[in-house]
Amino acid sequence: MGTWHVSYASGGVEYAQAFIQWHKDRTEWENINKPVLGGNICMGSWKPIDATHVYRNHYGWIFNNGVVSNYFNETETDDVSRDGNSYVGVNTTKIYSLAGTLLLQIDGTATATRLAP
Fold this sequence. Notes:
Blueprint: E1 2-10, E2 13-22, E3 27-32, E4 41-48, E5 53-64, E6 67-80, E7 86-97, E8 102-114
Antiparallel strand pairs: 1-2, 1-8, 2-3, 3-4, 4-5, 5-6, 6-7, 7-8
């Protein structure tokens, strides 16, 4: 739980950073450094897998100049450090048309650091 600074990469190349808040009720909220008119707010849920692993299921809209054009679903499994102040994870982002057709899949990684309260 708490607020995290996350870096996302694919193929070893960073493509975005975000602030994520993980909530006690197992929901989460993210603000990513993508253009506002393209969509930069998304949300989802998480659940513990075991003592150091967490699974996240995350959704967001994709906009084209402020008009909804597609949506995405990102799933991620994270390995939380023993001190609880960082995590690394692997993720898959699937981009869909509004009709539900899969358009693109991106496999990547996440590296995060907990921000002080």
